[in-house]
């Protein structure tokens, strides 16, 4: 490397420094200190893991995350393809974007008022909702997530669809493919990595979210983030290392899930290369270094 | 796309249905009482009057705005130089991507509990600055991600041209890069504002009940079952979201034809990259 190259590199490091140090101190410091305090108390991890609420809480959190992600993706995928094929008016765009910036707390409140006990729907139309959103299946929390995440996934996928060359679908149609065949054999293989990324972000977020399950009062069993928080707020000082251990176990679960999602993404990327509709990407994101 | 766009009524209907949950807020915020067997509420502006009269609420609103604005300003300023570097050669800096986007993968509160214990040791808790610092954890990844996209699409070619015409590095930054990035910077700022605006758990932890923000009051009234007031509070907290939509709706127009603008941008990028390789060689 010549001298200008070295100078450019040190410049780059200098520019990266503020953000990197801030994040390293906040995340690394937070996780590190939690680890230190929970390990200082022997047996805290064992106590957290063997706590009767841990495995059921993990199961509830996984259920909420899996159901929200699955429903959101299944709704968002056709919506995105539909809008990509037909375009959308300004008002439709506005409606699609609107849930995106709404805080999760507000989404939960809205779903509660619309479908909860003595809900607005029930009062106006006199119909009972067919299921209770406060029930053991956490329907309210799942609906609140779905309401927010369908637009998120749609917009994410539309961003990808917009970057695909236009001729792809037209060529497929010209070769006699039906619209279903175009989606199945041309668009879906190309889109799959983005679906994994968007669904993965939703899954990891809803797995660890505290506010929404808390506001719906899901309590038997308590979702993992709510359980960890209750432990943390407990007046008993002996509970604190256990709370930190619970919190770290939750972070570990998230990290493992993130690894699984990364493997899925890699697989989708690799299969994309073999797909019949694959084209060399117009924009190379990687420089040959 | 050459064929005329045919947005269907069915899409409109579907998206309209999606906005159904907004109506209960409006109805409830205008209710004095709404007995279970009554179809419509007793209309009144009582909850809005309460909202205007309570000084605690005005203060909470102010605190929320101050926190969110400081968080987004800090996050945008921190992310700007990083995004400039990261977007240029994303593959090379992958460990930094992992670090900077880690709060999207790991739960932000995972770090927040440890930070709370750590900050307790040094007495940096229960006030607004502590809350601002902890809100950076969920906000910074959004600033880095969106600004990297901005940097990627804007490229460095224009800046290089300015330099080759004799501009200093500072002039190139101030006159070329900064104006070009302006929409992206606004987007990052607003996104971080919204992220901070919606936080409940992190504020509760580091604020220790002393820092009362709008969503905290809302959650409190929700637990207390004061539905009409909660609805009014919720409607007010939608205001930043609507501001965000108003700011980004200019970009809808670029999305409507869905491809043309992007294709042009990527061509410019590719040829720019080629020119740069030529320069380096």
Report on the structure:
The complex is a heterodimer of chains A (289) and B (281). Chain A has 289 residues and is mostly helical. Chain A has helices at residues 3-40, 44-50, 54-86, 90-97, 104-115, 120-125, 139-163, 167-174, 179-208, 211-215, 224-233, 239-274. Chain A is built from twelve helices and no strands. The radius of gyration of chain A is 23 Å and the shape is globular. With 281 residues, chain B is mainly alpha-helical. The longest helix of chain B is centred in the N-terminal third of the chain and has 32 residues, at 55-86. Helix content of chain B is 76%, strand content 2%. Residues 1-5 and 256-281 of chain B have low confidence and may be disordered. The two termini of chain B are 39 Å apart. Chain B has a two-stranded antiparallel sheet with strand order 1-2.
Please describe the structure with a list of short key phrases separated by commas or semicolons.
heterodimer, A: 289 residues, mainly alpha, 12 helices, 75% helix, 0% strand, globular, B: 281 residues, two-stranded antiparallel sheet, disordered N terminus, disordered C terminus
Write the topology of this structure.
The complex is a heterodimer of chains A (289) and B (281).
Chain A: H1 3-40, H2 44-50, H3 54-86, H4 90-97, H5 104-115, H6 120-125, H7 139-163, H8 167-174, H9 179-208, H10 211-215, H11 224-233, H12 239-274
Chain B: H1 9-18, H2 22-29, E1 31-33, E2 42-43, H3 46-53, H4 55-86, H5 94-100, H6 102-105, H7 108-122, H8 128-154, H9 157-164, H10 169-197, H11 201-207, H12 214-223, H13 227-237, H14 239-255, H15 260-280
Antiparallel strand pairs in B: 1-2
């Amino acid at each position: 490397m010549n001298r200008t190259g070295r100078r450019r590199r040190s410049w780059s490091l200098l520019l990266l420094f503020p953000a990197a140090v801030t994040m390293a101190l906040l995340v690394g410091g937070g996780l590190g200190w939690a680890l230190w305090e929970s390990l200082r108390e022997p047996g805290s991890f064992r106590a957290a893991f063997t706590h009767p609420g841990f495995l059921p809480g993990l199961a509830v959190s996984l259920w909420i995350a899996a159901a929200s992600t699955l429903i959101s993706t299944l709704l968002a995928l056709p919506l995105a393809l539909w809008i990509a094929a037909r375009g959308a008016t300004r008002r439709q765009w506005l409606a699609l974007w609107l849930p995106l910036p709404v805080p999760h707390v507000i989404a939960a409140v809205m779903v509660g008022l619309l479908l909860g006990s003595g809900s607005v729907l029930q009062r106006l139309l006199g119909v009972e909702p067919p299921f209770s959103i406060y029930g053991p299946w956490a329907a309210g929390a799942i609906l609140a997530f779905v309401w927010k995440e369908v637009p998120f996934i749609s917009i994410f996928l539309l961003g990808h669809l917009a970057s695909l060359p236009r001729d792809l679908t037209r060529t497929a149609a010209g070769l006699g493919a039906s619209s279903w065949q175009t989606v199945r054999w041309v668009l879906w293989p190309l889109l799959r990595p983005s679906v994994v990324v968007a669904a993965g972000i939703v899954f990891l977020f809803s797995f660890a979210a505290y506010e929404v399950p808390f506001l719906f009062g899901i309590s038997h069993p308590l979702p993992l983030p709510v359980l960890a928080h209750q432990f943390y707020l407990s007046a008993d000082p002996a509970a604190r290392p256990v709370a930190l251990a619970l919190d770290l176990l939750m972070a570990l679960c998230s990290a493992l899930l993130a690894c699984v999602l990364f493997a899925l993404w890699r697989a989708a990327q690799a299969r994309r290369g073999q797909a019949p509709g694959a084209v060399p990407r117009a924009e190379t994101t990687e420089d040959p270094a | 796309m050459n064929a005329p766009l045919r947005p269907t009524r069915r899409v409109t209907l579907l998206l309209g249905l999606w906005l159904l949950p907004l109506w209960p807020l409006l109805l409830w915020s205008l209710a004095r009482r709404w007995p279970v067997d009554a179809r419509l509420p007793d209309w009144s502006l009582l909850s809005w009057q309460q909202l205007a009269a309570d000084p605690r609420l005005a203060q909470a609103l102010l605190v929320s705005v101050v926190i969110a604005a400081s968080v987004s300003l800090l996050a945008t300023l921190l992310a700007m130089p990083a995004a400039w570097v990261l977007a240029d050669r994303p593959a090379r800096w992958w460990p930094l991507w992992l670090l900077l986007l880690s709060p999207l993968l790991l739960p932000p509160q995972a770090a927040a509990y440890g930070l709370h214990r750590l900050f307790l040791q040094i007495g940096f808790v229960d006030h607004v600055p502590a809350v601002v610092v902890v809100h950076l954890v969920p906000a910074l990844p959004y600033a880095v991600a969106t600004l990297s996209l901005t940097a990627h699409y804007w490229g460095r070619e224009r800046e290089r041209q300015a330099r080759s015409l004799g501009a200093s590095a500072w002039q190139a930054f101030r006159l070329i890069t900064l104006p070009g990035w302006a929409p992206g910077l606004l987007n990052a700022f607003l996104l971080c504002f919204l992220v901070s605006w919606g936080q409940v758990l992190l504020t509760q932890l580091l604020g220790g009940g002393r820092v009362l923000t709008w969503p905290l009051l809302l959650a409190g009234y929700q637990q207390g079952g004061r539905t009409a007031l909660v609805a009014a509070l919720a409607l007010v907290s939608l205001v930043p979201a609507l501001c965000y939509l108003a700011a980004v709706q200019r970009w809808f127009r670029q999305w409507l034809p869905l491809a043309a603008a992007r294709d042009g941008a990527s061509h410019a990028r590719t040829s720019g990259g080629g020119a740069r390789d030529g320069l380096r060689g």
